[in-house]
Write a structure and sequence with these properties.
Number of domains: 1
CATH class: Alpha Beta
Largest sheet: 3 strands, antiparallel
Strand content: 15-25%
Number of strands: 3
Order of helices and strands: HEHHEHE
Distance between the termini: 47 Å
CATH superfamily: Ribosomal protein L7/L12, C-terminal domain/Adaptor protein ClpS
Shape: elongated
Oligomer: single chain
CATH topology: Ribosomal Protein L30, Chain: A
Helix content: 40-55%
Radius of gyration: 20 Å
Strand order of the largest sheet: 2-1-3
Amino acid sequence: MGTNPEIRDWIEEEQEIKEPRMMRVLLHNDNYTTMDFVVKILEEIFHKSPAEATAIMLSVHHNGIGVCGVYPAEVAETKVSQVHKRATQAGFPLRASTEPV
């Protein structure tokens, strides 16, 4: 007994894997957060090497913004939350945001 072609097409459509929406995570400059703290955040939350973290921190410092990485939307939002939590705990106003890629 064969499967109805309409049902088979519907099942195939439902089984298609959709690529997750990708988001760029950004750090924003402020006049209070120390450069060392920004580097620490980049190393610990974004798993950047010391050289990569320093380069991103300098971009934040000189350009007002720096790209931490590109992640699926849920991961990006989690990383932004982690940055805000750690910054608040340390007494810094460091802000992070996401934007679509």
